[in-house]
Amino acid sequence: MQSEDIELAVLETSELTTFPCSIDQNLRRTNADKTKTPPSLLNRKKRKHRIKQGPCKTLIPKQGLITTNIAKYWHQRYSLFSRYDDGIQMDEEGWFSATPEEIAATHAARAGSGTIVIDCFSGVGGNAIQFALKIRGCHVVAIDIDPWKIGYAINNAKIYGVEDNIDFIVGDFFQLAPFLKADVVFLSPPWGGPSYNKIQNFTLDLLKPRDGYSIFQVAQKITPNIIMFLPRNVDINQVEELSWLSSPPLNFEIEESHVQGYTKGITAYFGYIVSGSPGLYKLSEVATS
């Protein structure tokens, strides 16, 4: 199959539907909303090229109050996005899946200048924004299968002033991967919601939409330089096993990140972006105000 046979549904920022939204409220979708096509994609032909950059407007589904499911995360909003009050937008899933901003910044610091980074499960854009913001000459490809999330990510990137450095693609990473090239791949696949905290030993087969081994192998065909953000209770032995999926095995480093005294996740670095000795395990305290 040739690359021109792939049709990508790509959002044009100049054509997004705009609705009023209070920054003191948040956005909620019902299950029915999730199955509907956003207004900006109705009756649109799919395009085969990258996003056309333009003035960014806001794609917003049904507006609602903070739900009980995300009240905990509401109190952490400034650690997720320091510029939250400037109009940051998230759906309910975005609240518990967005990487805390300071951790996302540490991920970006490892990628190196002048790089192309693919954020394979970009969600509402937290990591993509930090890659574009912190790395000189970096260009980011932000992919998500949910067009609503890409709409939020566009809005959020505009707030940070980095929308011109990010290509936003609505699509399935696994279908797109054979046609992608990059210096670094960032993986933060869905952890299965807040219930992951109740699991004593989080195994890689619990990741979505495929198990961690499958996701890693697909990413590895793009580049050996992989950053993978995982739950704090992930099985470390399984993470180490990922390095052995290559021949010769990849260098790897595992970092434990803390925000305001709480462990927020494990970051695994693979390939040439590993600092220090291969196979290193270290703790990293990420302090936020």
Automatic annotation (TrEMBL):
Keywords from the UniProt entry: Cytoplasm, Methyltransferase, Nucleus, Phosphoprotein, S-adenosyl-L-methionine, Transcription, Transcription regulation, Transferase
Annotated GO CC locations: Cajal body; cytoplasm; nucleolus
CDD domains: AdoMet_MTases
One GO MF term: RNA cap trimethylguanosine synthase activity
Catalyzed reactions: a 5'-end (N(2),N(7)-dimethyl 5'-triphosphoguanosine)-ribonucleoside in snoRNA + S-adenosyl-L-methionine = a 5'-end (N(2),N(2),N(7)-trimethyl 5'-triphosphoguanosine)-ribonucleoside in snoRNA + S-adenosyl-L-homocysteine + H(+); a 5'-end (N(7)-methyl 5'-triphosphoguanosine)-ribonucleoside in snRNA + S-adenosyl-L-methionine = a 5'-end (N(2),N(7)-dimethyl 5'-triphosphoguanosine)-ribonucleoside in snRNA + S-adenosyl-L-homocysteine + H(+); a 5'-end (N(7)-methyl 5'-triphosphoguanosine)-ribonucleoside in snoRNA + S-adenosyl-L-methionine = a 5'-end (N(2),N(7)-dimethyl 5'-triphosphoguanosine)-ribonucleoside in snoRNA + S-adenosyl-L-homocysteine + H(+); a 5'-end (N(2),N(7)-dimethyl 5'-triphosphoguanosine)-ribonucleoside in snRNA + S-adenosyl-L-methionine = a 5'-end (N(2),N(2),N(7)-trimethyl 5'-triphosphoguanosine)-ribonucleoside in snRNA + S-adenosyl-L-homocysteine + H(+)
Subcellular location: Cytoplasm; Nucleus, Cajal body; Nucleus, Nucleolus
Main location, first listed in the record: cytoplasm
Keyword match Signal: no
Family statement drawn from the similarity comment of this UniProt entry: Belongs to the methyltransferase superfamily. Trimethylguanosine synthase family.
Protein's name according to its UniProt entry: Trimethylguanosine synthase
